User: What shape does this take?
Amino acid sequence: MKIVDVKTFVMGTAWRNLIYVKVHTDEGLTGVGEATVQNREEGVVGYLDGLARRHVLGSDPFNIEDLWLRMYRDEFWRGGVIATSGMSAIEIACWDIVGKVVGQPVYRLMGGQVRDRIKAYANGWYTGERTPEEFAERARLVAAKGYKALKVDPFGNAYYEMERKEKLMAVALIEAIRDAVGPDIEILIEGHGRLTPATAIEMARELAPFNPAFFEEPVPPENLDAMAKVAAHITIPLATGERYYTRYDYWRLLQAQVADIIQPDIIHCGGLLEAKKISAMADANYVTVAPHNSNGPITTAVSTHFAACTTNFKILEVFDDFAEPWVVEAVPGTPRVIDGYLPLPTGPGLGVDVNEAVMAEHPYRKEVFFNEYAMDWHKRR
Assistant: This one.
């Protein structure tokens, strides 16, 4: 079997464009992947075109390790989100093809089942006015959908430091959410790498009484020493990793001993097998894995397979219930959260496909630019 074509699709939504890939073989089987990188669509699509010509066309989709090595090693400029996202999409599509050939879900080819269901947390739900009352009301809707956990960035458009009134607002938002959902639902704090170590430590102290399950990216991810300073002074578990790529970045992160939870994004870090390797490294350091997934439904499907066969998996991020309806309609077979959990996939391969007709109705939007430092960014409009 040989790969004979790689097609790329870009679908527009309110706040970002989703990038899907379909790999075709000479035996008529196809596999799908995702390479969504908000604000980098043009670069990703262009890179995928060149990547296919240089390394993918003519390759056997079963030889995943060899193809990955060639896509990584043979390119002089290694890594970076555009390159690793392109590689990930191809690698994932190959697993989809292999699963279809042997008639098995992908997770059964990567170690098999280690749990009966996949715990999920909601994100993208707090798109109303930034007030305690509005956030509380929307949190109640999340709980009503059955979610047992939700994530929120309470820091507005902060950069490094915050005015006193903004600190009080951040605390008020989390207090209102906790009052709305009660003590049993987990609240995850998103930092988006906004704060200085001193500010992050202060806010962690103020938010600790509301029992957050973790504090994600409290400081920018580039400086591990700064993150270590935060980790040494807070009681909330520290999560990070969505902006790291491949085992080589994660080796440095794990060596620094700063993260209680790592968050590889499977469509950015190098693909399914690379995520498994990263998770094995984390397991040796007694660190759990909560995959980042602010992407489209294909990533949800991919991450569900990963979670099903990874022993140190913790929880999976899901946006799908809070996106436009066509986002899910464009990916038939999208896994759906039921009472806070995703069921294990049952179909061969990834179990999803792309509906090209739906995507054509929502084309690439060149005016979209997602800026988490803009006023009211959380409304995702």
Summary: The mean pLDDT is 97. The chain has two domains: 3-103, 108-350.
